Amino acid sequence: MAATAMTYFESGRGWDARIAERNAALMATQIDRRRRVRTPEYFFVKHFDNSRLVKAADPVRARQMRYFSIAVGVFFLLVMFYGLQHFSAIENSYRIEGEKQALEQLREENRQLRLDKAELTQPSRIDQMARELGLNAPQPGQVVHSSGHSEANSSVLAQVTPPAQ
User: Fold this and answer.
1) What is the pLDDT of residues 100-144, one digit of tens each?
2) Is residue 30 within 8 Å of 38, Cβ to Cβ?
3) Residues 44-81: pLDDT tens digits?
């Protein structure tokens, strides 16, 4: 029971024994693949000691990277500025097209209203409707002009004289 709780590091075995045990476990648990042949997997130990490596500063490379970063940033800003102008132009063209359609619709509505007005104010139509309602033509003297002059043979209903000064 205690052996199952023990890890590789606590068991005191060497690297080679642990890798061999790992390879054996992988071989035992592999599923049959192509043509029912097991594909072996092996892990090889490579010992590299990079603790003594120190990265040296390269001022030329750092300056090149700064210039490159600035160039990429300027290019990005130019592309974004162009995209902003392009998309705002497209948006404005859609808005203008919508306004043109609205103007055309209003012109058509105005034309329809003018036709309706011309039809409704047609004298023959008004005369026909008056006759249907039982109205007759006006008698002489019934027509009063806004200029104040009446017909010669008609009587005067009312008269306003301006006061003398």
Assistant:
1) 999 999 999 999 999 999 998 898 888 888 889 888 887 877 777
2) yes
3) 888 888 888 888 889 999 999 999 999 999 999 999 99
94 lies in some domain: yes
63 falls within a domain: yes
| 76 falls within a domain | yes
Say how far apart CA 125 and CA 146 lie, in whole Å: 25
Structural domain count, the chain: 1
Neighbours of 8 (CB within 10 A): 13
∠ Cα 20 24 27 (to 5°): 140
- Residue 150 inside a domain? The answer is no
CA-CA distances (angstroms) from residue 58 to 14, 54, 63? 41, 12, 9
Half-sphere exposure (Cβ direction) of 39: Cα atoms closer than 13 Å: 4
Which range of residues forms the domain containing residue 38? 11-104
Dist CA 136 CA 151 (whole Å):
19
Specify the DSSP class assigned to residue 149: -
Residue 21: which of 36, 6, 34, 37 has the closest Cα? Answer: 6
**Statement: the pTM of the whole predicted model exceeds 0.90:** no
